[in-house]
Batch of 2 targets.
Target 1
Amino acid sequence: MLTLVLVVILAALVFEFINGFHDTANSIAASVATKVLTPGKAVSLAAVMNLVGALTGTAVAATIATGIVNTEVVTATSQLVLCALLGAIAWNLLTWWLGLPSSSSHALIGGLCGAALSASHGNWNSLLWIDTTVEWTKSKGLVWKVLVPMVSSPVVGFLLGLTLMVLLWALISGMERAGGVLKRIARPRWINAGFGKMQIMSAAYMGYAHGHNDAQKTMGIIALTLVGAEASGALNDLPDILAFMHPDQSIVGNEVATWIVVTCALVMAAGTASGGWRIIKTLGHKMVKLHPLDGFAVDTSSATVLMTAAHFGMPVSTTHTVSTAIMGVGFAKNPRRLKMRTIERIVWAWILTIPASAGVAWLFYRGMMLLGWA
C-alpha cells in the first residue's frame, strides 16, 4: 500500500508539471501577443512568479483535500486519487495537443468526481455537495466551492475586463481633453510605451495569481491521499526517512505541510518554464488582436478574480478567467473583431472538460476493480 501512495504522489507531481506548461499561456499570452515581452522572458517571469504565488496560502488546497470527496463513503482514497489524476492528465494532454485552453482545475475536479462515483458504484453521496454547518466563506462541497465559482468567475472575468477597458479609455479621453502635456502623453505612441511597462507588472501579478490558485490543487490532492492512506493503515509503519509524510505533519486544519507546498511550487514552476506554445497561440492571437493597453487590462482583471477566489478557497479555472477577460477586452474594443469560431471551440472545451475527465477517471477505476487493485 505504501508503494501505491508513492505512485499517487508521483502522478500528482506529473499532473502539476503538466498543469504548469498547459496553463503557461494563461500567465503570458497577453504579454507575448502585445510583444511587450519575448516568449523566453515571459516564460521566465511566469515561472518565477508561479513559484512565489504557490508558496503563499493553502485555502484552495484545503478545499481539494477535504471539501469534494466524502471519505466516509469512499475509503480506497489512493486508488481514487490515482484514477482522478490519470483522467485529468489525459484530458490536459489532449487539449494541449489540440491547442485548446481548457481548465486543468476542472479536469482535476471532474476526475475526482468520476473516480468517486465509480468507487462507490454510482452513489452520489460519495461527493460532498454542500455543508451548511459552517459559515459560507469556509463551507465545503461542490456547490459553493466549485459549481458557483465555475459559472461566476468567467462572467466576472468578462465584465471586469470590459469595465477596466472602458475606464482606461475614459482616462485617456480625459487627458486628451485636458490638453498640454497630458494630451501629448495620451498619444498612441506614448500610451503603448507606458502601458508596455505597466503590462510587465500586470504579467507578474498574473503569474503570481496563477501559482497562488492553481498550484494549491495538487497540494490538496497529496494531502487527501495521505489522509486516506492513514485511515486505511498504509502509513502505520513508515520508515524514518518518510516520517514527514504522516498526515499529522501534512495537513492540520486548513494548513498544508511546508514540504508539500514547496515541492508542488517547484514542480509547477518547472512545468511553466517548459512553455506551452500551442495554447499561447490560441489565447494570444486567435481570439482578438491585443495592444499593451489591452494586455494590461486582461492581466489585471483576470489576476484579481483569481486572487479573490483563492482567498475564499475556491479552485476556479485560470483558463476560463483569462479567456473571458480577453473576450471582455475584445468586446469593449469592437464586438465584431472577436473571432467567434475560435471562441466557440474554447467554450465547447469548457463544457466537455468535467464530464470528459470524469468519464476517463471512471473507466480507469473500473479497470482497477476488474484487476483486483481496488
Target 2
Amino acid sequence: MRLNDCHNIDDFRLLARQRLPWPVFDYIDGAADDEVTKARNTAAYDDVDLVPDVLAGVETIDTSCTLLGRKSALPLIMSPTALQRVFHWQGERAVARAAEKFGLWCGISSLATVSIEEIGALISSPKMFQLYIHKDRGLNASMIERCKAAKFDAIALTVDTIVGGKRERCLRSGFSSPPKFTPSSLLSYALKPRWGLDYVLREKFSLPNLDTHVRQGTSEPVSIQRYFSEMLDQSMDWKMVEQIRADWGGTFCLKGVMSSADARRAADMGIDAIMVSNHGGRQLDGSRAPFDQLPEIVEAVGGRIEIICDGGVRRGTHVLKALCSGAAAASGGRLYLYALAAAGQDGVERALTILKDEIARGMKLMGVTRIDQLTAERLRRR
C-alpha cells in the first residue's frame, strides 16, 4: 500500500500499521480497557442523519469560521497529541507546517517532542498548547511563561488525566516514553528497519518542554499510564483552574469536559471554550461519546461558550454533524496521527486535503454555503 492509495482516514490507519513497529502503532491506535468508548466515539456519528436541501445555488461556498478568536479555513482543529517524533521523525514540525498550509488550528502537548519555542517560531497560524498540570508547580509556571514568550494563541488545560487510563495494548507491548526494546517487541522493531534507522540515527528523542524539570519520559523510560498517575497533580480542582487561567491571561480552554454541570460551571467562570472529549477513549472506558453528549452540553451553556467536539472524527460529514448539533468545530488526534505515521508531512497534507474536500462536498450536497447554516434543523436522530 502506498500514500496515493489512501482515500480516507482508515486507509492511513492501514498504511501506518504497515510501517510502524506494533508497540508504536498500538500506542496510537489503542485505548483504555475494552476500548468500547474509543469505538463509540466514531460509531456515534452513524446514529444521526443529515437532511439536505437542494437547488440552493452552491457554486461558491465559505468553509471558514472563527475559533478562539482566530480565523480558521475549516471548522476543524488538529488536537494536541504527545510523542509525535516517535511516530515519524518529522513529528510536530510536519503537523504544524501542514496546519499552517491549510489555515487550521493545531496544538502541541506538554509531552511534545519539539519545543514550545520552535513551534512558536515555525508557524504564524493559530496554535494552542495542551497543558498538563504536574505536581512540580515550577514546571507548570515554566511552560505557561514559555507559551507567552512564544506567542501561543491559547492554552488547552487537560482535565481528564487525573490518573492514567489502563491501556492494555501498551501493557502487553511494554511501550514507554522513550521507547524501550523488550524481548516481546524486539522482533517488531527489527522488522521495521526504516523506522528503527530514523529513530536511532536522527536527532535524539527528548521532551523539551519537560526535560528542564523531570527525567521521566525523556531520559528515563516510563509508561504513559504511570506518568499520568505519578507525575500529574491529582489535587487539581476548579480553584486551581481559575489560578492557571489567571497566570496565563489569554484565551483559555478546558479539554476533557463531558458533563453538562461542568460545562455550565466553565461558562459561568467566563472560560472561552471547552473541548467535549474523553481523551480518545484512552482514560475512562465506558464514558459517553462526545458527539452523544454534545446536545446536552449545548443546551446547558446556552451559547455562552465555544464548544469543540473532540474525538472519533474520521469523515468530513462527522464535522458537519457536530456543527449541526451545536459545536463551533470538531477536532481529533488520530485523524492526522495515522497520516503522520504513514508518510510524515506529505501524509498529513493528504489527509487534510481529503477532509477539506469531504467538508466542502458535504456542504454543497446539503445545500449550504456557510458554516452558520449548519443547524439542528438539518439533523435527525434515528
